[in-house]
UniProtKB/TrEMBL annotation:
InterPro entries: DHFR-like_dom_sf (IPR024072), RibDG_C (IPR002734), Riboflavin_Biosynth_HTPR (IPR050765)
One GO term of the biological process aspect: riboflavin biosynthetic process
Gene Ontology molecular function, alphabetical: 5-amino-6-(5-phosphoribosylamino)uracil reductase activity
Record's protein name: Tlr1469 protein
Record-annotated Bacterial bifunctional deaminase-reductase C-terminal domain positions: 3-168
PANTHER family tied to this protein: 2,5-DIAMINO-6-RIBOSYLAMINO-4(3H)-PYRIMIDINONE 5'-PHOSPHATE REDUCTASE, DIHYDROFOLATE REDUCTASE FAMILY PROTEIN (AFU_ORTHOLOGUE AFUA_8G06820)
UniProt keyword NADP, yes or no: yes
Pathway: Cofactor biosynthesis; riboflavin biosynthesis
Organism per entry: Thermosynechococcus vestitus (strain NIES-2133 / IAM M-273 / BP-1)
Length: 176
């Protein structure tokens, strides 16, 4: 992927970006003429992010996708390589995608969490889905993949199943 996108709550709770660690995968990207790490994009309408998070010390390219309100917090700051403003109070997705395209982002992985994923699913912007089935029983405290509750209008078509150890990787295509 050229870039990965994740919600502000995922970053606030995890503290770091999910960067590539495998030397083999990093070498493969470099061989393809890509940057060693995909651009790590945080989506935050509020722009309220703590500069003390380890994320800001990781050796990765960083971008912020935010609103006019959120961008005002980061004026003149150098913590992000890009600060994209799309919309006044809420993210305007067509405008957001135009910023990404203009910066050369053609392939984008949405890493979650559920709120971000749901807003993209609802506008039909997700074309493939990778689900990992893990043997962890978390009960009702588990964060939801799709918390908004509206039934997804897309149809999930199974493309591949890959068992690895105790986990199963499920790869779907979404047809709208
Ligand atoms: N198992 C997994 O693979 C996985 C992956 C990712 C996350 N998670 C878990 O999921 C949980 C977090 O998920 P979540 O659903 O609570 O939050 P989330 O989607 O990570 O983040 C929500 C925040 O992101 C921004 N945001 C998301 N969608 C937006 C939109 N359409 N427009 C504007 N801003 C938007 C807002 O930031 P502001 O508040 O700054 O405006 C919002 O409050 C965590 O527990 C995390 O560990 C699990």
């Amino acid at each position: 992927m050229d870039a990965v996108l994740f919600g502000a709550t995922t970053l606030r709770l995890g503290g770091t970006a999910m960067r590539l660690q495998s030397p083999h995968l990093i070498a493969e990207r470099e061989h393809q003429g890509r940057s060693p790490q995909p651009l790590q994009i945080v989506c935050s309408a509020s722009g309220e992010l703590d500069l003390n998070l380890p994320f800001f010390r990781q050796p990765i390219p960083r971008a912020l996708l935010t609103t006019e309100k959120g961008a005002s917090r980061w004026q003149g700051a150098t913590a992000f390589d890009h600060c994209w403003c799309a919309g006044g109070e809420a993210i305007d997705w067509p405008q957001a995608f135009a910023h990404l395209q203009a910066s050369g982002v053609q392939t984008l992985a949405v890493l979650g969490g559920g709120q971000l994923f749901a807003s993209l699913l609802e506008i039909g912007a997700i074309d493939e889905l990778w689900l990992t089935l893990c043997p962890l029983l978390l009960g009702s405290a588990a964060p939801s993949l799709y918390p908004e509750g509206n039934p997804c209008s897309g149809k999930l078509i199974l493309l591949n199943v890959l068992p690895v150890g105790n986990e199963v990787y499920l790869h779907y295509r979404l047809s709208y």
